[in-house]
Specification:
260 residues, single chain, mainly alpha, MetI-like fold
């Protein structure tokens, strides 16, 4: 098989992933041209493009992206750190597991959006309420991921600590935590996904402040279908990119797993 044939074959394989998106765009443009009702529900590609230029030129889109991404990452940092600490304590200390475990498992069954009225009364409709929702969305999966990851460490690793008489803290820090970190990092990727979803949801429910969710609410009030489509696609793209980069970081940090 010649080099040109191989190159064409590889190109065709890579191009297959674009078939469905291009088909959807063609169907979308077709539907937008059927009637006035269809043109409202399916804004044409040209309308979407002009709407994108408009929202970029005003600077509102850039401000919304910065506010939402910052809120999601800050919530991941605060809620994820707290979740890691609580999960590690519950896994390492039987008394804490007995005292905290039932309360944790009960509270994590309550939908976060069901707590919005409480947060609204306690903290108002601004950034504190939004950040609290995002922090909790990252907190719950990190507690579970840390707890389960530490519990799943093989017993032979714990025996190493006993042999070298490292003590409970040094055994945790030098043996258990490094062994559990790859699985904990997987929990971080889940926490990031939940934090991003909670960010957009909280911005929609709490009207005050900047963010992509707030822009969506304004676009809905103004019947700007083109802006809503742009924001929906952008939210999905940003979530994909954040998940992509955190997965790449995990592969790099734990590349030693493939060497064993």
């Amino acid at each position: 098989m010649s080099q040109n044939t191989v190159s064409r074959f590889q190109f065709l394989r890579s191009a297959r992933g674009w078939v469905l998106p291009v088909a959807l765009l063609l169907v979308w443009e077709f539907m937008s041209r059927q009637s006035a009702e269809h043109s409202y529900a399916f804004a044409s590609i040209s309308q979407i493009f002009h709407g994108l230029v408009e929202i970029i030129s005003t600077g509102e889109l850039q401000q919304g992206i910065a506010a939402s991404v910052q809120r999601a990452l800050l919530g991941l940092l605060i809620g994820g750190s707290a979740g890691f600490v609580v999960g590690a304590i519950m896994s390492s200390w039987r008394v804490a597991d007995v005292l905290i475990g039932p309360l944790y498992h009960m509270l994590r069954q309550v939908p976060l959006m069901g707590l919005v009225p409480l947060f609204s009364l306690w903290l108002g409709n601004g950034d504190p309420s939004k950040l609290t929702v995002v922090c909790l969305s990252a907190f719950y999966p990190l507690v579970l991921a840390t707890y389960e990851s530490l519990h799943q460490v093989e017993g032979k690793y714990r025996e190493v600590g006993d042999v070298y008489k490292l003590g409970k803290w040094r055994t945790f820090y030098k043996i258990l935590l490094p062994a559990a970190l790859p699985n904990i990092f997987t929990g971080i990727s889940f926490a990031l996904a939940f934090a991003w979803l909670a960010t957009i949801g909280s911005e929609i429910l709490f009207a005050a402040g900047a963010g992509l969710g707030n822009i969506m609410m304004n676009a809905q009030a103004a019947s700007r279908m083109d802006i809503l489509i742009i924001l929906t696609a952008l939210i999905g793209l940003l979530g994909f990119l954040m998940n992509f980069f955190i997965n790449r970081a995990g592969r790099y940090l734990f590349r030693w797993r493939n060497l064993r």
